[in-house]
Amino acid sequence: MVRGKILILVSLCLFFSSLPLGGEANEITGEAKIEASYDLGKGESTWGGSLDLKYNTSLSSNYYFTTDLLFSYQSGEFFQPIRINELFLQGVEAPWKEMDFRLGLLEMSWGASDIMSPVDVINPRPFSLSFSEDALENKIPVPALDLEWYHSQDWSLEFFYQPSFVPNFVPEGLEKQLLGYELASLLSVNPQNLALNLTKEEPLVDFSHPIWGVRARGMISNVDVAVSYLQGYYLSSYPRETNVFLGLNGSSIVDVTMGYPQRSMLGLEFQGEFPLLEGSTFRGDIALFVPERWINYINITQPSGEVISYPQEAFQNPYWKASLGIDYTTDNNTLLNLIWMWGNPYEEGEDISPYLFLTAERPSEDNKWTASLASGVSLQDGSMVNVMELSYKPEDNWNISLTYSFSSGAPESKLGEVGDSLLLGVKYTF
């Protein structure tokens, strides 16, 4: 594994060293970031850094090539050291004048909401418990073809084709830990006494059985609208068979087979000026999900040899998720954003619940300082998370930020598990 990562790193360095620099047709941009965080609840500190390199080159007047690579390090164990953010060939008004396309490893952005759109479900994501904007916008690219045909100045039709499956990134150790706690609660045993064996079965996705979608977007009475359909799979795995072997000494062996249920998504997006408040904008996304019926068959073998079996349904009926928001900039340049949300990005099916998020952001007159507050509350259990940030830009390409996050509510509540932490970050953009 280490040898493979070294080989990849060397190959990437050789790749970048061979790129033609200079001239208007070639451009290298990037972002270097260092962050240090301190968990106030656990009394633990972590630090990390990342280097994001993006290379754009013009192959002709209509064709372009983009590469975006992320190198990162984190003192914790749950991270990806090397990742391709994007790598694609782009055609603008090509191969026909009314058409654009992208082909390669892509990041897709469906939905009108500022963050946490229920329609934006194509790309998998790295594991995170954070509700920060950076964490929620962090995506893993997928191999795909994205084709958009412009019917007129106001309307277009987009086609998406993905020939292989890419799941959410959850480290195996963390996934086994989380699943172990869930099983221990179900069996009323100590999680330390569970020996968990995990097997994953990814869905058959290939060129003849792809993940695909269509999206029509345009304008109706000065309101941007879009209607979409996506046929694919859940990006997080769910148990489909659980075999439990209870021992005489209180220990247990559990074999779990995980899979990825199929799902269809029908989405509606809209955004425009709010008619009752001048200078404001309203946005909304509504998504209807139709899941494959998914049953986890649980078999418990007692020390006596008796077997108790019963089904546990994860998905059965269609359900919907939504995000409705309005933003407004006051006379003193304070940005206010209010969002009502039915289901956060980590909830599906019967776990969906309502939330309310409020964001306020105020820059200084010289735009060097920015203070912001983002608060979210679960309307189901009253748990709350707050993120206070103060950032400073000594120059246009430098940003220093201090973030304080704190939550309230029981550990098992919707937002209580976020915890309390301090984060200091320094970012340089070039």
Question: Quick gist of this model?
Answer:
Among the domains are: 23-31 and 49-100; 353-430.
Describe this structure in words.
There is one protein chain. The chain has 430 residues and is mostly beta strands. Among the domains are: 23-31 and 49-100; 353-430. Helices cover 8% and strands 53% of the residues. It contains 3 helices and 23 strands. The protein has helices at residues 2-17, 133-136, 172-187; strands spanning 26-39, 44-58, 63-74, 82-91, 99-106, 142-150, 156-162, 194-201, 211-220, 223-233, 238-246, 252-259, 262-273, 280-291, 294-301, 307-315, 319-329, 335-342, 354-363, 369-378, 384-392, 398-408, 421-429. The longest helix is centred in the N-terminal third of the chain and has 16 residues, at 2-17. The radius of gyration is 24 Å and the shape is globular.
